[in-house]
Amino acid sequence: MTLPVIASEAKQSRASGAALDCFVASLLAMTLVLGATFFVSISTGPAFAAGPADLISEFRAKNGEGKVVLDATLNAIAQQQAAGMAAKDVLDHDVVGNFNVRVAPSKAGSAAENIAYGYDSFPKTLGQWINSPGHRRNLLLKGASKVGVANAKSASGKTYWAMVIAGGYDKPKPKAKPPAKPAPKPAQAAAKDKAVKDKAASEKVAAKPKPAPKKTCTINLLGLCI
């Protein structure tokens, strides 16, 4: 009578151990899954967010234009513009000088500039530019390959944005034409030229006085001509 009870107790003990093992295994598996999820979340966090050049390139690609990459020179030009606007708290393309003069150091064949203020992130600013015909046209500049983006905050708390997009770096600059040589004159024209010069020289020689014409006498009387 005792054996079945012991056997029964033994079976119950084994069953309880198996259940505990399953619980521990499930808990461990859940921990691994949570750990993997956390790792993926960290890996795809803000550090891997798309930058301004990527967002602009994505928009350009949707409209049949080539991608652009960030350029240090254009970034510096954009930063100068953003800082100038923030310092004076005004939205103005010419706040730090004419755009053509400011963009000259980039040596680009073509360039355009977008400015804005009030948005705390570039995606929001880009959205505003896309919805504005003039700014949209600049974003889709033909042949553009480089871009610079910067922002600065004014004393009043406004965030000013500037973007400079440029292209035409591969176009060779036109060479200065040498001065045209005078066409050689034909032999006949040269001979005529010489004749004209000789005639002019001969006319400069003082003309000899002509002899006085002889009088014709009707009557010659005692040596007098009447």
From TrEMBL:
Swiss-Prot/TrEMBL keywords: Membrane, Transmembrane, Transmembrane helix
Membrane spanning stretches: 18-40
Domain of life: Bacteria
Family annotation (CDD domains): CAP_bacterial (cd05379)
Region (Disordered): 172-215
Biased composition (Basic and acidic residues): 191-206
Keyword hit for Membrane: yes
Domain spans labelled SCP: 54-162
Signal peptide limits: none
The keyword Repeat appears for this protein: no
Protein name: CAP domain-containing protein
Provenance organism: Rhodopseudomonas palustris
